[in-house]
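Sequence in, structure out. Go.
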Amino acid sequence: MTRTQRLRMTIDITMTILSIILMGGNYLFPADLVHEILGVGLFVLWVVHIILNRRWYGAIFRGKYNPYRVMQTVINCCILICTIFLMISGIILSNHVFTFLNIQSGLGFARIAHLLASHWYYLFMSVHIGLHVGRLFQNVTAKIIPRILLALACIYGLYAFIARGVWKYLILQQQFFFFDFERGYVLFALDYISIIILFATISHLIASRLKKNR
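Output:
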């Protein structure tokens, strides 16, 4: 593994961890300042991520498109759009980091946009992960016990997706974020990790089929 590949992996893992933490909103921290700082940190990592993958973005309008490339391009572009909306809405809602901008309008729009974009971002991020875990997925499914554990994680991920009401946020059936303190922080993390596993697995299976058909 080259130095650039190690850097990319480190950034990707850090971005995933930050995303899980940020999905807890301001409820995970005693002050919302921490949420804002971590949000800015995630955005900075996204800038670095795009720079490291600038060749891919530069080739979007070049070459032929097969079904897998279409899937990959749509997912990446959707993540990028969600990231932009997250940063814009986050700046508008900021109570600390960006108060020097003195933005006093658009709070209602920003709150809805932040809630909607954050959950769609998390979904597309999970699907994006599934496109890049080919070798890991093959190693996991090579034996029966890891395959069963993966299946159980996906089943629990589906349960968490419904129980946490994530699907409601995606279609604005729930317009205010709710954190269940009775379940606690550990279960919250397990729920959102299992959601990543669920959609990453689905994405990987679809991508593998598209590659075979190609």
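Check: The chain has a mean pLDDT of 90. Residues 130 and 203 are 5 Å apart (CA to CA).
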